[in-house]
Amino acid sequence: MLWRTMPDPSPEPFVPAGGLLAQLDLLQIETSGPVLHVRLNRPAKRNAISDPLVQQLHTCFVNLPEPVRAAVISGAGDHFCAGLDLSELVERDASAAVAHSRMWHAAFDAVQFGRVPVVAALHGAVVGGGLELAAACHLRVADDSAYFGLPEGQRGIFVGGAGSVRIPRLIGVARMTDLMLTGRVYGAEEAVQVGLAQYRVPQGGALARALELAHRVALNAGLSNYAVVQALPRIAEQAPAEGMFTEALMSALAGSSPEATERMRAFLDKRAGKVVKA
Ligand code: 1HE
Asked: Which of 91, 132, 237, 262 is catalytic?
C-alpha cells in the first residue's frame, strides 16, 4: 500500500547545481525543483570512496542549497559503490586510520543528520563502505542488479564508516556478523526481506524510483521531515519514558507550525487529498 495525500508531483528538468557544489568534481550534482541528485562519479574505480570523495560528500551535505527539500544519492556506471578506496588504505598508519574513520563518520552523519531526507538509489555492488553510505540514507531503493556485502573480513580490516552502528540497527547484529564473517552477499530480494532496503525494483529502475520518492518526500512539510530525520533515530535510542517526552515536544513543535495549521485546514476544507490505497 502507498500513501497518497498529495497530488502527483510533476518534476522539473534537472539542471547542474551551481556555486560551491559545482566545484565538487567527484560528484555529479543536479537539482530538479526541490530535489537534489548527487551521483558518485568515479565509475572507473567503481565509485570507490577515496579521501577526496568522502570530503566532497561532506561538503555537499553541509551546504545544501536552501530550496532543496530531499536528496538522492546514486552511483555512476555499473555499481553504486565498491566501498573504501583500498589503494589509499595500504599506506595508512594507526593514528591516520582513526582520523580517516572519523572523517567518514562526519561525512555520513552529514547525510543522516542533515537538513533533508536522503534516498539511496542502489544498483550493482553496494559493498563495504558503499553499504555504510547507503545505511546513512533514510530510504533505500535496490534494483535487481544490486548486491550487498561487507568484505572487510576478507580484506583484513573492519568497518570504519559507522557500519557497526547503523547496519545492526537495520538488520540486527546476527545478520551483520554473518555478512562479515562468511562474506555472505545478499541480493535485492533478500535485502528487502532483511531490512537493508525498503524498495525493490527491476534492473535499471532504482534511480527513477528514488527520484520519484524524493519528489514525494519533498511535498511534506519541512518540519515534519526534519522531525523524522532528526528526532526518530534519537527517540529510538532513548528509554521509552524519555522517548515519549521527546516525541511530545517534537510533535508540539511540528503541529503548531503555520504550515501544519494550513495543511490540516486544507483537509478539513476538502482542499487536500485523502489517504488512499495505491
Ligand atoms: C577499486 C575498488 C576499491 C574496484 N578500491 N579500487 N571494497 C571491496 O573489497 C570491493 C572491491 N571491489 C570489487 O570487489 C569489485 O571491483 C567490484 C565487485 C566492486 C566490481 O567488479 P568489476 O569487475 O566491475 O570491476 P573491477 O575490474 O574489479 O575494478 C575496476 C577498477 O576499479 C580496478 O582498477 P583498475 O585500475 O585495475 O582498472 C579496481 O582495482 C578498481 N576498484 N573496487 C580501490 N574498493 C571506512 S571502512 C570501509 C571498508 C571497506 O569499504 S572494505 C571493502 C572494500
From this structure: 132
CA of 48 to the centre of ligand 1 (A): 6
Which of 42, 46, 157 for a ligand 1 pocket mutation test, highest count of atoms within 8 Å of Cβ? 46
Are 227 and 174 part of one and the same domain? no
- Alpha carbon 228 to its chain centroid, in Å, reads 13
Please write the tens of the pLDDT for every residue from 79-114: 999 999 999 877 788 999 999 999 999 999 999 999
Q: Is the pLDDT assigned to residue 1 strictly greater than 80?
A: no
Does any domain span residue 252?
A: yes
Q: What is the pLDDT of residues 204-231, one digit of tens each?
A: 999 999 999 999 999 999 999 999 999 9
52 and 150, same domain (yes or no)? yes
Q: Is 152 annotated in the active site? A: yes
Same structural domain for residues 86 and 195?
yes
Dihedral of CA 36/15/64/11: which sign?
negative
**Whole-model pTM above 0.85?**
yes
The one catalytic residue in 30, 91, 152, 189 is: 152
**Domain of 260, in residue numbers:** 222-268
- Asked if residue 154 and residue 96 are part of one domain, the reply reads yes
Half-sphere exposure of 261 (CA within 13 A, CB side): 5
H helix intervals, 75-145? 86-89, 94-112, 129-136
- 278 within some domain: no
